[in-house]
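Quick one, T. Sequence first:
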Amino acid sequence: MNERLIPYQPMDLAEPAALVSAIRQRRGGQFINLDRMLLHSTPIAEGWNHFIGEIRNNLSLNPKLRELAMCGVAVLNGAEYEFFHHAPPFIQAGGTEEQVQALRLIGQANFPEECFSPIEQDTAALTFQMTRNIQVDSALMKRLQATLGNTDTVELVTVIAAYNMVSRFLIALDVNPEDHPPG
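Structure tokens:
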């Protein structure tokens, strides 16, 4: 892990007021460390807040599949912060603690696929292929499109792509969970 060279913005940051307010509103009133790092750049923070806000709140994709993909990306990229923030919403969306623990093994030979439904297995496979291989097996894409339809397939691919971006940002800038000391 890199030593964080860029400090977090202060928790009580007030400017730019409209952006700070929008981020706090999306987060239920407070910042998380990711926000505090993003706020070093107003254009990045504005775009991120809007784009990721849409992914988190306005997709037609099943929230359990969305969070499964986010957790899978986190594990595959070693972004514990991302996993820390997405395992609870995965459970809230219908995932189980057994599935959370199983996701820690995504991409490994002992990944317990039997803990997941067929569409969840395909979601995990897509997450792995997009994150590690970039290229995606056409048979997998055909199954996803047949099961999810065009919109939800595009949304799932976008979730995986976006959260690969998130994990890379978190790791490069050594963003840690709020209750953990800096790296």
